[in-house]
Amino acid sequence: MIIDELNIEDVSPGDIKDEEPLFGKKLGLDSIDAVEIVFQVERTFGVAIKDMKEGRPALQSIHTLAAFIEKRLSQ
Amino acid sequence: MKIEFEHRQAAHCESGVTANLLHHYGIDISEAMAFGIGAGLFFGYLPFIRVNKLPLTTFRCEVGGIFKRLTKRFGFQVRWQKFRDPQKAMDALDRKIAEGVPVGCRTGGYWLPYFPPAFRFHFNMHNLVVVGRENDHYIISDPVFPDLERCHRKDLIKARFAKGVMAPRGTMYYLTRVPEKVSFADAVRNGIRVVCRRMLHTPGPLMGVKGIRYLAKQVKKWPDKLGQRKASLYVTQLIRMQEELGTGGGGFRFMYAAFLQEAAQRLQIPGLQDLSDNMTVVGDRWREFAVIGARNCKGRAGDNDSYAAMARILMECADREEEIYRELLPVIR
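^ Those are the sequences you sent over. The predicted structure of the assembly is below.
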């Protein structure tokens, strides 16, 4: 979802390690991209991230984002 | 020296600092409630004020307004200080910390070393509470972070004396008198009245719901008027003001919805819950606007992601918000 929606070139899903920071040099993502990720997470999984208080820890890595979504879906 | 201060993470710095400082003095108040009573919600498109050379758009009231209105309404006394000399500013801060008084400071967030680089840019209205000092490091309760942070003295000086628009000039504030009891019912009603008045009746075309409509018309013109690159920079700035700067998301509309919900439960006012739900819907529309804007900034806009589409969403936000404010006034009477 992240690769497709953010049009990230030259990176495949397998290239992103689960614990790697989402934002920074490797993927070149920044806070404007965070807006799109938040929107896509809500659209794809029905899980809302309403503010950066919950968004910041959730958007650290693929692992933290997946854990956040799973936790919300199980509630 | 470290003051026993309960750090609670918040979505927005000023309402977070306000709630945490009052909580320190025994008032049971959430961030959303502080934001609502402090009449934090607003809209203003101010092209004549430039931040990073781009027009300022604000989704909240004036800096310091939430804290001032809330403390005044509850009967707290506050001491505000500004400084020219960084040394004197730090000495004054040290004295209060040594007395065990938590001190709110206004800072330029860019200079705070604990901000992640990806989220760092020049913004001179960031509030935090200094709750201790250990040698050359200060212990900071920065409400937009999950835990207490440490900041070297030289970095804190840079942040307190950041230059540029709305330079903080060493501003610090602390509570000097705490009331025995506070009344939420009157304070909530007053806070709502202030927001409705400002959003519906602020003179001129740039503020309140009229301001949202004005911005919508401008956004539609930006690509032709400014060129694609500059238009994209204007939109980037707008999104940052809306979604990033500790706004609670949706340009503070989600936080205001949370306030209305809490007020509905706390005061048992019929009708407030429905208006809270409506405000959440508006926040969602603001966020959709931001997503289209982000796609344009990043060069991945599709056929449906035009500037005209953004303008249409803004017009819809203005209409929906106007309806909410007009319905709020009779509900709280």
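Chain A touches chain B at residues 6-7, 23-24, 29-36, 38-39, 49-53, 55-57 (CB under 8 Å). The two ends of chain A are 23 Å apart (CA to CA).

Shout if you want it in another format.
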